[in-house]
Amino acid sequence: MPLFEPLKPVSPRSRLVLGASFFALFFLAWAGFTLSGIIPPLFLADPLTTLKTGVTLFTEFNFLRDIGITVWRVVGGFVAAALIAVPLGVAMGAFKPVEAFLEPFVSFCRYLPASAFIPLLILWAGVGEAQKLSVIFIGSVFQIILMVAVIVGATRRDLVEAAYTLGADGGGIVKRVLLPGAAPQIAETLRLVLGWAWTYVIVAELVGSSSGIGHMIMDSQRLLDTGQMIFGILCIGVIGLVSDLLFKWLNQRMYPWAF
Amino acid sequence: MSKLLIEGVSRVFPGVGGGAPTQALQPTDLTVEDNDFITILGPSGCGKSTLLRIVAGLDRPTTGRVLLDGQPVSRPGPDRGMVFQSYTLFPWLTVRENICFGLREKALPEARQKEIADYFIAQTGLAGFERHYPKMLSGGMQQRTALARALANDPKMLLLDEPFGALDNQTRALMQELLLGIWEADRKTVIFVTHDIDEAIFMANRVAVMSARPGRIKAIVEVDLPHPRHYTMKTTPEFSRYKAQLTEEIRAESIKAAQMEG
């Protein structure tokens, strides 16, 4: 039996083992380069030091609070963006005049980098929470609108026709054909954009912030504490991975017909 | 009493990329009486599906009009139930929910919906599959559900666009008998589009034979075979006579269609 056969699925167990073994390999390489002294600690702390500084971050610097604040910012900005973007995207996908009206502008906005707005947002909203949430919001909202519009617009025409012959009107088509049909892919889109929101929040916290994971990383740079910096980055990775798995699990539970 | 009148209906599709427009359907007349079962038989690309879609209100005629009980047809509606060749069950709904779709649009009480769904689940042999999602069903089962879904709405007429075209021969024969049994029980008006001669004869009271593109109805053949029909009828001499006659009609058109494409 050849090991590499195109598109041949792997068992869940080997999937887990293979996925975990790359993490192990990564940590081994990291430990090898740092503990052997090939890379000096000034540039890259070794895994053990990183872990130790991580523990002190939690015990002495109340890092949990920073994590909580960052998570709240991501979720807050993301939820606000989704609440506005999903209905707009659905309207654009369903109704072509709405699409013709908004699509060019939204496409333009999508290319405005959220991080470039930070100085302006500080001017408008100060350095408080409103500014952090706005960065996430601007970074996510246009992406979600466009992706949802494409998903809804790609609804199978024959399903829409079948619904019409069963007596559905325009409202019924949107509510009972377009929305349920697009829901799983919309949920997948939100999962994807949530990942991007994490990069925006850190950028927002690197500038003019007094709390959050990004702020901690900035502080550590001043002290040249690579251990703390790496621990912060790893924390983001872990939270991202966990939220991603959670989202995926939720989608599969909610839309059993699609997976 | 319902009656369908197709009067001078034609369809021209605009040319693609500046090309010449395509006439899919020449002006066509057809009257479908109440309780009729008419099959529209024609080679591929003859416009038979276009004609059916115009009757359904999913496409508009370039000229002419369609009247159902004297009222012009301009849009799709629940009075004309349709089963498509492609599988058009809503993938997010179970078999039962699919069958109830039209009833829900009508805002029928839940209890009444269940009652109607139960009746058609039994009639189409779907008992035991009510909670299945479409992706868990075979093609034949999916088309049974699509048929039940259309029938549950109690339409004035049933429009079938090669509904068994994607099924294997054995399943197709079973589905033909199933549909015929349902028709024999409540004699709903049916227009059934097919390119299969056996199917066209076996199902129909009348077969409308269409010419090659641009299509028009070139002959209407009355099928004077007794009901209830059984699959063994397909091997009787009477059936063979109809088959010989229609094969001649359709062969000339298929040759024309092939030459046009060549």
Explain the layout of strands and helices.
The complex is a heterodimer of chains A (259) and B (262).
Chain A: H1 12-35, H2 47-60, H3 63-94, H4 96-110, H5 118-125, H6 129-153, H7 157-165, H8 170-206, H9 213-222, H10 226-254
Chain B: E1 4-13, E2 22-32, E3 37-41, H1 48-56, E4 63-68, E5 71-72, E6 80-83, H2 95-99, H3 101-105, H4 110-123, H5 139-152, E7 157-161, H6 169-186, E8 189-194, H7 197-203, E9 206-210, E10 217-222, H8 237-261
Helix pairs in contact in B: 4-5, 7-8
**What string gives the helices and strands of chain A in order?**
HHHHHHHHHH
**Helix count, DSSP H or I runs of 4 or more residues of chain A:** 10
- Overall structural class of chain A, as computed from helix and strand content, comes to mainly alpha
CATH class of chain A: Mainly Alpha
The CATH homologous superfamily of the largest domain in chain B corresponds to P-loop containing nucleotide triphosphate hydrolases
What is the total domain count of chain B?
2
Strand/helix succession of chain B: EEEHEEEHHHHEHEHEEH
CATH architecture of chain A, please?
A: Orthogonal Bundle
Instruction: Tell how many strands the DSSP assignment of chain A holds.
Output: 0
Distance between the termini of chain A: 28 Å
Largest interface: A-B, 22 and 30 residues
CATH topology of the largest domain in chain B: Rossmann fold
Portion of residues within helices of chain B: 25-40%
Percent of residues in β-strands of chain B: 15-25%
Helix proportion of residues of chain A, in percent? over 70%
